[in-house]
Amino acid sequence: MTPGATARGGRRRRRLVRPWRGGPAGHVPGREALQPERTALAWQRTAVTALVCLVPLVLVALRTGVTAVALGAGAAMAVSGVLVWSVHRRLGQLGDDSRGYSPYTPMRLVSGVTVLCAVGGATVGVSLWLR
Amino acid sequence: MGEAPGPVDRDHREARRPSRVYDVGEEPDPRFSMANERTALAWMRTALALVGGGVAIVSVSSLDGMPGWAPLVGAASCLGGGALALRSVSAWARVERALRLGLPLPAPRALAMLAAGVVALAALTLTLSVVELTTR
């Protein structure tokens, strides 16, 4: 009998594997505990967070009439949307060490969006305070 | 994972930016590079949380009946988040360089700065709230 199956009443049942209860762990795909997937997902989370953070900024800038900030935040939202769409390529690049990928440019892009969002939020905040 | 790169791979590596990071030392274990990348992204998300919180405070302060100092607290949170985002990129570059050169990793000073900034912001908000309550 195979370790993952049991016989009961003449029928063979597949036993549920529960590694979190100390059961036998399944085969983990290579690349050392899914490091590329974890890194690609970290990129995806960061890009989505950047996109979500910009939505209230656009709304507040429109409400308070700071058009320049609303336009800048709208442009940053477009950049974030492109980033969310494009980071799925990172998965393929991470799976191939010979491609010599550098995360510097997308990281600077996310940083730029964050700084733009920060400057926009601070501008709206100070303009509200001065009113 | 640990095989020596071929000539084409070396060309790929030479084109990588920034050159101050990739022109020195040897290629580290990809797991360490990826862990460094994920750490920098976690810092970036922390910065985005600060900026998002600041924008939320600013948006709430535009409502009627809110204290006049609230937009300033939001602006301070936004600026702190922006500074942290810039620092996360430079920290990634410093750690990657240390990994390539086999040097000890730089101390995470940003953690102490973040803690001090959050505590200062919380203390400022608490103080202003108490003053607002007592003067009403």
Structure report:
The complex is a heterodimer of chains A (131) and B (136). By secondary structure, chain A is mainly α. Chain A has one domain. Chain A has helices at residues 31-64, 67-86, 88-94, 104-130, and strands at 5-8, 11-14. The radius of gyration of chain A is 24 Å and the shape is elongated. The relative contact order of chain A is 0.12. Chain B is mainly alpha-helical and 136 residues long. Chain B is 76% helix and 0% strand. The longest helix of chain B has 32 residues, at 30-61. Chain B has one domain (28-135). Chains A and B meet through helix 1 and helix 4 of A and helix 1, helix 3 and helix 4 of B.
Query: What is the number of beta strands of chain B?
Result: 0
Helix/strand order of chain A: EEHHHH
> What coarse outline of chain B follows from CA principal-axis ratios?
elongated
**Class inferred from helices and paired strands of chain B:** mainly alpha
Key terms:
heterodimer, A: 131 residues, mainly alpha, two-stranded antiparallel ribbon, 4 helices, 67% helix, elongated, B: 136 residues, 76% helix
